[in-house]
Design goal:
Number of helices: 17
Structural class: alpha/beta
Distance between the termini: 73 Å
Strand content: 15-25%
CATH topology of the largest domain: Rossmann fold
CATH class of the largest domain: Alpha Beta
Oligomer: single chain
Number of strands: 22
Helix content: 25-40%
Largest sheet: 9 strands, mixed
CATH superfamily of the largest domain: von Willebrand factor, type A domain
Number of domains: 3
Radius of gyration: 33 Å
């Protein structure tokens, strides 16, 4: 009964406090696509993702009922950083759902017109508002409705202290006439509060939700840059703290008698330190602030084991000293020459192998289908010599002579071979993510192996020139480029052995591998050259590449390949690829395979469609 009465009281007092209208709420998931299209159509950075912002404590003065209900303490405001446009996860500030939706669209338009290099929360938003209304006058009626609705829900200046009221008047003037206010009046008293959040404005990544009353040592973490939805949706505030003196406080509480005796020993699957805590993500989501510290120990004082690095005896065989390749730094808009080192490699333990029996039936069917694409001989008429007479042309020549005309030369038939002037390079992602299972018996790498084998069987039937390479990386100085089948090599048992010997590992520095693949393919004498990329996720590595840096470098590498006359096309099994592949390869430059198990069958058919 007490719980029931408490719930009724909470619902009533929260509704009476105002400022939140659940019945008219609009969620970001409902307008995320529309807001993203509007942001890019208005000239916003096409490389930015649209994700949810965090709720921050604003510290502004609240109404009495809000303090009683414990509501209105936090607010989520839009902000834009180098990688993400973050909008509130839900807007329920107005009783009209249409106004809440309009606020999302206005924030997207404001972010697209944000004044570059303008410092200061107040001036920057005024300049951005002026730019948005000047470029797109049709937004003015919507903006004026939002301003009137927002002013109606703000605390009136009469209920504030004199210095707080002066700031409120200045903010209202800035909203009604953007550009008319140069700065906010100062706050004189220690009991004064900062102004209420302005929902129609954006805050900078290094600013709290409102203008601070005093300096705060806090900053916002950049987005993860991951393709997982949870990582893209969550952001946290962070603070720098000092390393505690006792780095292992639990050791001081250790007691030997707490160890279990042999009689108490139970064999269970105990967790290791390396195991991931399944509750860590939920705990982090509930925290308002993440505390970060730097360990003062040097690298020499720590013992490190990288289990991803194989020994020289177990690793593949390197070919040559390595190739220095450039990389694009989008932050400086400069191509860093010789920034990455690509190491060509070949499997040292690959043994010649036949086609696996489970693929024999599918391979036979594909060879029959692709044999129709193989070059065929055709007869050429009216040739000066040949194995047979061209009877039609002979009759025509005789008729010309009888009528007094000069007969056409050539009365023979000759055969000519119709060549397919085509070359294809298939680049496969061999990163550690391909070791993930897709069923009880198969992993992603197994599906990739089958796909490469069937792809090779199909192209052998057509006679097209093709090469197959794989890649992975461990930072920029160790980009591994695996030779599976060169253009000069035949597809035989040795090539099948190298494909079957592929091993997953490391990360996905895609831009470097694309540049080397483009160089190899550009040297092939063919009228049409197709660069086919097979991957299971977005570009990433241990350094800055696991963010927008990798996306931008890969995008520039794709543009470089197109300038060489190549046709890049990406085939992926990443279900979240629609969020970044259109930016990398264009709307018609990629294909998403929703069911990874279908990749071996669909890859050769996709090649037939691309080369039709």
């Amino acid at each position: 009964m007490e719980e029931f009465i408490g719930k009724l009281w909470h619902n009533w007092v929260t509704k009476a406090a105002g400022g939140h209208y659940p019945a008219a709420a609009v969620k970001l998931a409902d307008v995320e696509k529309t807001a993203g299209i509007l942001f890019r159509a208005f000239g916003g950075d096409p490389g930015l993702d649209v994700a949810a912002a965090t709720f921050d404590t604003h510290g502004a003065r609240r109404r009495w009922l809000q303090r009683l209900a414990g509501s209105g303490e936090k607010v989520a405001q839009g902000r834009r950083d180098a990688e993400t446009l973050r909008l509130p996860p839900e807007i329920a500030a107005f009783p009209d759902a249409a106004l809440n939706r309009d606020l999302y669209l206005w924030l997207a338009a404001l972010a697209a017109c944000e004044a570059p290099g303008q410092r200061g929360w107040l001036l920057r938003n005024q300049r951005s508002t002026q730019a948005a209304l000047a470029r797109y006058p049709g937004l003015r009626p919507r903006y004026e409705r939002l301003v009137q609705a927002h002013l109606a829900v703000r605390m009136p200046p009469e209920q504030l202290r004199p210095d707080e009221a002066a700031q409120e008047h200045a903010l209202r003037a800035a909203l009604l006439a953007p550009g008319s206010v140069d700065g906010l009046p100062p706050l004189y008293s220690a009991q004064s509060r900062p102004p209420q959040p302005v929902l129609l404005w954006l805050v900078a990544p290094d600013e709290p939700a409102v203008v601070p009353l005093r300096d705060q040592a806090s900053e916002h973490l950049p987005p993860e840059g991951s393709h997982h939805t949870d990582a893209r949706a969550d952001a946290h505030k962070a603070e720098q703290v000092e390393t505690p003196d006792n780095k292992n406080p639990m050791l001081a509480m250790f007691r030997a008698e707490s160890l279990p005796t042999w009689a108490e020993y139970v064999r269970v699957n105990r967790a290791f330190d390396e195991d991931e805590n399944p509750d860590a993500k939920n705990v982090a989501r509930d925290l308002d602030r993440l505390s970060l510290t730097q360990d003062g120990d040097t690298a020499r004082s720590r013992v490190r084991f990288d289990l991803d690095l194989p020994s020289a005896a177990e690793d593949d065989t390197p070919i040559g000293p390595g190739i220095a390749l450039p990389e694009w730094d989008y932050r400086k808009s400069v191509l860093l020459e010789k920034h990455c080192l690509l190491q060509p490699m070949v499997a040292h333990d690959a043994q010649p192998a036949p086609l696996p029996p489970e693929l024999a039936a599918t391979a036979k069917k594909l060879r029959g289908q692709f044999a129709a694409l193989a070059p065929q001989r055709r007869w050429l008429k009216a040739q000066p010599d040949g194995p047979e007479l061209d009877l039609d042309n002979c009759v025509r020549n005789q008729a010309d002579r009888q009528s007094g005309h000069t007969p056409a030369s050539g009365g023979y038939l000759a055969q000519a071979r119709c060549e397919r002037d085509l070359a294809c390079l298939l680049l496969a992602d061999l990163s550690m993510s391909t070791d993930a299972p897709i069923s009880d018996t198969h992993r992603i790498i197994d599906v990739i192996r089958d796909s490469l084998l069937l792809f090779s069987e199909a192209l052998t039937a057509t006679g097209d020139r093709f090469g197959i390479y794989g890649f992975s990386s461990l930072r920029r100085q160790n980009v591994r480029f695996h030779l599976l089948k060169d253009f000069k090599q035949r597809y035989d048992a040795a090539a099948r052995g190298r494909i079957l010997a592929m091993k997953p590992g490391f990360y996905t520095r895609m831009g470097t591998a694309l540049r080397q693949s483009a160089r190899i393919l550009a040297e092939q004498p063919a009228g049409r050259r197709l660069l086919l990329i097979l991957t299971d996720g977005k570009p990433n590595d241990l350094d800055l590449y696991d963010s927008r840096y990798g996306i931008e470098d890969t995008r520039i590498a794709v543009h470089e390949a197109r300038r060489l006359g190549l046709t890049p096309f990406c085939v992926t099994i990443d279900r979240e690829a629609g969020a970044y592949l259109p930016y990398l390869f264009g709307p018609a430059g990629f294909c998403v395979i929703r069911k990874p198990a279908e990749l071996p069958r669909r890859l050769p058919l996709l090649y037939a469609q691309l080369t039709r």
